[in-house]
Amino acid sequence: MRAYICNAFGSLDTHGPGDLPEPQPAEDEVIIDVVAAGVNYYDTLIVQGRYQIRPSLPFSPGGEFAGTIAALGAKVQGFQSGQRVLAFNSFGGYAERARARASQVFPLPDAVSFDQAAAALVAYATAWFALYDRGRLKAGETVLVLGAAGGVGLAAVQIARAAGCRVIAAASTVDKLALCQQAGAAVGINYRETDLKDAVKAATAGRGADVVIDVVGGVFTEAAVRATAWRGRVLVIGFAAGDIPRVPANLLLLKGCELSGVFWDEFLRREPEACRAQVAAILAGIADGSLVPPIHGRYAIEQAGDALKVLAERRVTGKLLITPCD
């Protein structure tokens, strides 16, 4: 079958399209004919050997994908051949067919397209888990989103806005901030040109943000902690800036605030039923139009490397998709 293949861990220029053997389901797995696969930042890391998971070589990246079930393992229940589904498997999605454990497969409502589903799973589920579970979000709070024009960032903006919160979006360009405000952000901050802490304090009359979504890392994490309110919750999701931050612990003490890690993949594996309920709520929001996954572009398997480079260079507003059927 056609796939975008990593034969050896290395830079984004060293991988490309080719053929892989047809996947066969284990007894607890399903095989899915992939219509659309989401492109995520960790895809750029996994092919370089820089992610927490190092698949056996050769493999195809792509952790989230939507399509129809082509085959079922012997012990799989609750699904049927031809059913529309959304799935997560850490890797394998940049291919015509992919495998996933049945516990990590989600039924797809008819009102949600394959593109919408593949654009939403990781980004919206991560943002939902961060805000509602780790962040204990409440209506009326102020939410600061770093990297707000990316996939998780825009999802967090929409989810927080729908929850009745005031959203401050931080991004690196005027165009990205405009997109964030279209998604529901009340305030936009260009953190490349403005001191983040001072700008957040100014936007909150000196109080600070109640909840922070941080997918950027680097120097901005400490600035975000300094910009939190009393009892604030800073939710660390990723390090798109490249550097893993070191935060002075005395700031957490003085502000009575929390610095929490958000690892949605592990939440899915350890607490599948709780995760399933969250994904169902997200898909219901997409179906009724209250959540709208923004799609930046679509790439065929042969151009998957271009998609990874565009994402790695942070030239994306919204979500990129790999579409094996094109």
Number of helices: 10
Would you tell me the overall average pLDDT? 95
Estimate percent helicity: 25-40%
- From the helix content, strand content and strand pairing, which structural class follows? alpha/beta
Shape annotation: globular
Task: Tell me the major beta sheet.
Answer: 7 strands, mixed
Radius of gyration: 19 Å
Tally of DSSP β-strands:
15
Structure characteristics:
alpha/beta; six-stranded parallel sheet; 32% helix; single chain; seven-stranded mixed sheet; 326 residues
How are the elements arranged and paired?
Elements: E1 2-5, E2 16-19, E3 29-39, H1 41-46, E4 64-72, E5 84-88, E6 97-101, E7 105-107, H2 114-134, E8 142-146, H3 151-162, E9 166-171, H4 174-182, E10 187-190, H5 196-203, E11 209-214, H6 219-226, E12 228-236, H7 249-255, E13 258-261, H8 264-270, H9 272-287, E14 295-299, H10 304-312, E15 319-322
Parallel strand pairs: 8-9, 8-11, 9-10, 11-12, 12-13, 14-15
Antiparallel strand pairs: 1-2, 3-4, 3-6, 3-15, 4-5, 5-7
Helix pairs in contact: 2-3, 2-9, 8-9
